Structure to design on (287 residues):
């Protein structure tokens, strides 16, 4: 609406670095990555290529931390000073990071701008899609309420299935909610993961061999989406060219690859899943 100037804020877990767009009202707060005592800033002081190369070569399992609340507050102030009346903040899922909850401690500290925090329940390419859809609606002069309602709809109407090569990253960093009894690093077992309704990562199945696991999630996507009038398909993967090539080749046997909204998995998510991750998903756009 004419009296609202809306900024969209997200973090570097959103894959926005790999999703070219024309919007000038999207702002990214970056997350720190730690290799032992060495700290890097995702997308600034370490590239995705450098990150995945390091985790494949080194024995250290990297960790991440929340974006700085101080820097987030400074961004809010900067946006206010630039004339924005409203900030829609789309952070990484509260189910895998404390950042969402921490934002409520600062959202009212900046006078003169309204901060709206969305429970996205997701990350990576899923979050990136929601961010870009929010920016699209703003460009179409939709109101803050309309944008928030659609973001909330998308956050509650997606499904994604991930295959990981090794659960050690998720278990080490405490990001697999039902880790007990779900260790799959032996006997070529490939765990299939998803987000639950709280935005937590959970294991749902174990499939033997990568090829069978890929075929299984392709079948799940086909079965899931048959009952909907319109969906947006999603694809995500880490920085593992041979695996990506095999993955896309198998998916192309059932889908036109052009229907997928796709992206590399950002480094801050790679820290919790490793380089051997691939995923397919969808948003329900029309039921």
């Amino acid at each position: 609406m004419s009296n609202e100037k809306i900024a969209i804020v997200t973090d570097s877990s959103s894959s926005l670095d790999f999703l070219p767009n024309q919007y000038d009202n999207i702002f990214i707060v970056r997350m720190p990555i730690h290799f032992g005592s060495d700290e890097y800033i995702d997308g600034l002081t370490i590239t995705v290529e450098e990150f995945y190369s390091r985790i494949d070569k080194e024995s250290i399992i990297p960790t991440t931390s929340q974006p700085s609340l101080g820097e987030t507050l400074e961004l809010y102030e900067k946006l206010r000073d630039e004339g924005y009346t409203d900030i829609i903040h789309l952070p990484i899922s509260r189910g895998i990071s404390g950042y969402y909850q921490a934002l409520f401690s600062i959202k009212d500290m900046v006078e003169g701008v309204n901060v709206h925090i969305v429970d996205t329940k997701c990350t990576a390419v899923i979050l990136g899609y929601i961010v870009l859809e929010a920016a699209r609606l703003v460009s179409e002069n939709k109101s803050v309420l309309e944008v928030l309602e659609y973001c909330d709809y998308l956050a509650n109407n997606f499904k994604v299935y991930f295959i990981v090569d090794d659960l050690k990253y998720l278990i080490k960093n405490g990001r697999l909610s039902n880790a007990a009894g779900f260790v799959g690093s032996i006997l070529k077992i490939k765990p299939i993961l998803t987000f639950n309704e709280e935005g937590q990562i959970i294991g749902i199945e174990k499939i033997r061999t990568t090829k069978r696991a890929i075929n299984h999630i392709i079948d799940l996507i086909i079965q899931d989406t048959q009952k909907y009038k319109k969906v947006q398909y999603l694809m995500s993967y880490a920085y593992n060219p041979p695996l990506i090539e095999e993955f896309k080749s198998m998916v192309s046997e059932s889908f036109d690859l052009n229907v997928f909204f796709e992206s590399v998995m950002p480094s801050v998510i790679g820290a919790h899943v490793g380089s051997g991750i691939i995923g397919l998903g969808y948003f329900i756009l029309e039921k």
